[in-house]
Structures are given as structure tokens and as C-alpha cells.
Amino acid sequence: MTGGAFFGYAAALLVGLVIGLAGGGGSILTVPIFVYGFGISPLLATTYSLFVVGVTSMVGSVNHLWQGRVDLRTTLAFALPSFLSVYLSRRFLVPALPDPIFRFGDTYLAKEDAILFFFAFVMVMAARAMIRNQKPEQGEARDGRPRYGTLALDGLAVGLLTGTIGAGGGFLIVPMLVLLAGLPIHRAVATSVLIIAVNSFVGLLGDLQHTRLNWDFLLPFTGLSIVGIFLGMYLARFVAPDQLKKGFGWFVLAVAGYIILKELI
């Protein structure tokens, strides 16, 4: 096993650990792990990420469902448009992107490089949200009613993001569920995990039309991530999630900077 692969499998534990401790955020690392730890192409890495994120989040959501923390009505309002968006983006948009994305003389931007730059930008935004660690106010939406129309539009946007980069987008979903649906923060986190899980599986369906997966690699990696989730759920009794999320945010920011520098060089 190479040093990069060893780091990649160790990072699989970290992905699940962070999701188990903080309710989200770990999935933002899956694409960089696949690309730089295992030498997988960025496009295929987004497909693999959808599988890992989907299975790992689904395991986490089972506990939330059992505890009755998931708001199913809000899930449907947000998730149905999001499912459509993520499927269409994986089935048609991503394969249809030109390669290179643009060319000007001898200068060009390859499709896979463009996806990595966009992913790094999203990582910076996720890191910013985790470092600031500002929770939206709990309680009902301003008019006392969930804004299902706006939730549906936001679901379309998040589905497009998930379909393009293969990450869950929990750092975007949770504030939307609190501000627009009036969910308390713990119910927003639980509902977000379920949305991320199903979003990822729907996006994977779009990919299976034209992509073959290496199950011998994916299943052990996903298994380690699931082990990390259970470890994170156990450690959550002793570790303050807010402090963990802030520290992890700085780590994500450093990884984003590494991606940008490596691709530029």
C-alpha cells in the first residue's frame, strides 16, 4: 500500500468521525481523498463520493429517524426538487460539459481541473461556515409558516451543487431548514442528513448509466467511513461539537488551499 493510499483509508475514518460528531461536514473531503490519496480522476472521484456520502449519511440518518428528529414534510418540500436537480446534473449536465471548458490560444482549462477549482471554492465556503460556527436563530419562520416554495427553489440549487461536485452540501442545507422551515437546529441537522443521503443516491443513479464502479475499492472505504460514524456518535458524548467543527473548518480550508496551489502549479 502506498503512502497516499494509507492516508486515504485513514481519512475515510475521519470523514465518518466528523459526520458522527458534528452532524455533517466530513463529506467535503471525499473528493480530495480520492484524487490525491488514490490517484482517481476528478470526475470519477465525484461519482465515488456520491456513493460514500450516500451510504454514510444514510447510516447516520437511521438513528435520527428512530429518535423522531426528522421532519418528513420539510424533507419532501426540499428534497423532491433537489432529487430532480441532482439526477439531471449527473445524468446530462456533467457529461455534457465541454473539455476543455474554455481555450484561448495556448491557454485552456480542462474539464477535470475546472471541477477541482470549483470544488476548492465550495470547500472554502464550507470552511468559512464551520469556522464562524454561527447557528441560525431557532424557531419559526418570520411569518410563522414554513416557506415551502422558497425551500423548493433552494432544493434545486443544492441538488445542482451536489450533482456537480459530489458533496452533500449540509453546510448550506441546515441554515435553509432553520430559516425557511422554522426547524430547531437539532431537527434541521437530522433532516439534512437524510436529504444528503437520498440526494447522493439519486445522483449516483444518474452516473450508473455511463460509469462502472470499482466495488472492491469502494466497499472497504465506505466501511471505514461507517466505522468512523459510530466512533463519532460515541465520542459526541465527551467532545464539544462546536469546537470540533471550528477546528475541522481550518483543516478543510488548508486542504482547499492545497488543491488550488497544486492545480495552479
Structure description:
The protein has a two-stranded antiparallel sheet. Helix 4 runs parallel beside helix 6 and helix 4 runs parallel beside helix 8. With 265 residues, the chain is mainly alpha-helical. Helix content is 75%, strand content 2%. The longest helix is centred in the first third of the chain and has 25 residues. The two termini are 27 Å apart. The protein has one domain.
Write the layout of secondary structure elements.
Blueprint lengths: L2 H20 L7 H9 L3 H25 L5 H25 L5 E3 L2 E3 L1 H22 L15 H18 L4 H12 L3 H24 L6 H21 L5 H24 L1
Helix pairs in contact: 1-2, 1-9, 2-3, 3-8, 3-9, 4-6, 4-8, 5-10, 6-7, 7-8
**Unreliably modeled segments:** none
Proportion of helical residues: over 70%
Task: Give the structural class.
Answer: mainly alpha
Q: What is the domain tally? A: 1
Radius of gyration: 18 Å
Strand content: under 5%
- Walk across the major sheet and give the strand order: 1-2
The major beta sheet can be summarized as:
2 strands, antiparallel
DSSP helix count?
A: 10
> How would you state the average pLDDT, rounded?
78
Q: What separation lies between the terminal Cα atoms?
A: 27 Å
Number of β-strand runs: 2
Order of helices and strands: HHHHEEHHHHHH
**Envelope shape:** globular
